[in-house]
Write a structure and sequence with these properties.
With 88 residues, the protein is mainly α. It is 88% helix and 0% strand. The chain is elongated, with a radius of gyration of 17 Å. It starts with a helix and ends with a helix.
């Protein structure tokens, strides 16, 4: 992953961690369930955006390197496995 993507992913992870801590506090404080769930939905979207950023970086760098190095089949197999895990 390139440095810019890594920095973006780390920033997103910090945001997610903060939101998770906030949800924990909300649960501890017996906050209204719908309000808590709105925050968990926001966390899920943030995770999806982070995953998208990571996948873009992987495709642009790792997959392209694998193709240039003659390891396209291995890379393709990894992507299929990733797709299967994501869609369980």
């Amino acid at each position: 992953m390139d440095d810019a993507s890594r920095a973006d992913v780390l920033k997103r992870l910090s945001y997610i961690e903060g939101h998770l801590a906030g949800v924990r506090r909300m649960i501890d404080e017996d906050t209204y369930c719908v309000d808590v769930m709105k925050q968990t939905f926001a966390i899920r979207r943030a995770i999806e955006k982070m995953e998208t950023k990571m996948l873009e970086g992987h495709l642009q760098h790792c997959v392209m390197d694998a193709i240039r190095e003659g390891r396209s089949e291995e890379s393709f197999t990894e992507l299929i496995e990733l797709y299967k895990v994501a869609n369980k």
